[in-house]
Amino acid sequence: MADAPLLLSNAAPNFEFGKRKRWADLVITELVDVLLLVLSRHANILYCGNGLKNTLGWNDTDILDQNFTDFIHEEDHGKFANVFQESLQSGEPILSTYVRLKGVSSTDLFELVGRPQMAASEDAENDTPLQVMFIVAKPFPSKSLETLNTYIELEEENERLQQRVAELRARAPLSSPSSPASPSSQKPVYAMSSTFPNQHPLAISPQVHSNDSFPEPVSAGPSSSNVEDDSNRKKKIPRKTGPSDQYACITCGQTNSPEWRKGPSGPKTLCNACGLRYAKQLKMQKQAEEASVAIM
């Protein structure tokens, strides 16, 4: 019998994010919480990512072709210049350098990580590669740390308010236990009532007692009207809700398909095109097996 196609093997290939088309561009365009920069050897800004507006508030036209040191706090110029030149000369990456960057409305602390890289020169007459620096600037502290600080501040405020409430309760005057009870403070006592013949024998009516002695509570069973109401009440059936599934083809990595088909790993693991090819291969394999059995 002929060898089975590779797609019909028992071990299905694992899907990897790197198999998607233009996955590197997706990573760069979806990073909006960090700042991606490409600097020349003179620290001029050649490229900026989509996170510029979200981190510093500037537009692309505001910083392109400008020197990166113009957006660094004056006290951090020397620190950045030293690590920048040392990285270009040695070829070693820049590891966790903290500088203050100037935004539209404020100056915030950022963590810089960089790596030098040789790129092709745009000048056709000059074949010498151009040395550039890739910079990733991440705001510090992160948003998770800011949320934690806000939670701690709210906890301290809650504790302070609880102490204030305890002080106010301690200052409040205590009521005398020997003072006569006012009519409004008398508690209603429920007793058996058989005044009306049509009333349920276990019906209770409120009465007011002058002393603190109360009769034993009488437990009443469910009335027929309550049973009928419970039987007539419609049962609410919870609606099943769940998050929408996100599928990806294990062969080509496609995430958008008009229909998801069955593959070697189970239902909805192949896109429409790969699923049709897979079904055709299955059909051809079945015909080949039937032909071999007929010959034998």
From TrEMBL:
Q: Where is this region: Disordered?
A: 170-247
Compositional bias segments (type: Low complexity): 171-185
PAS domain location is 36-91
What GO terms in the biological process aspect are recorded for it? regulation of DNA-templated transcription
Q: Which domain of life is it from?
A: Eukaryota
Q: Which GO terms describe its molecular function?
A: sequence-specific DNA binding; zinc ion binding
Q: Can you give the residue ranges of the GATA-type domain?
A: 243-278
What SMART domains does the record tag this protein with? Answer: PAS, ZnF_GATA
Q: Which InterPro entries match?
A: GATA_TF (IPR051140), PAS (IPR000014), PAS-like_dom_sf (IPR035965), Znf_GATA (IPR000679), Znf_NHR/GATA (IPR013088)
Q: Which UniProt keywords apply?
A: Metal-binding, Zinc, Zinc-finger
Which PANTHER family does this entry report, sorted A to Z?
GATA TRANSCRIPTION FACTOR, PROTEIN GAT2
Cross-referenced NCBIfam families: sensory_box (TIGR00229)
Which protein, by its recorded name, is this?
Answer: Uncharacterized protein
Species annotation: Mycena indigotica
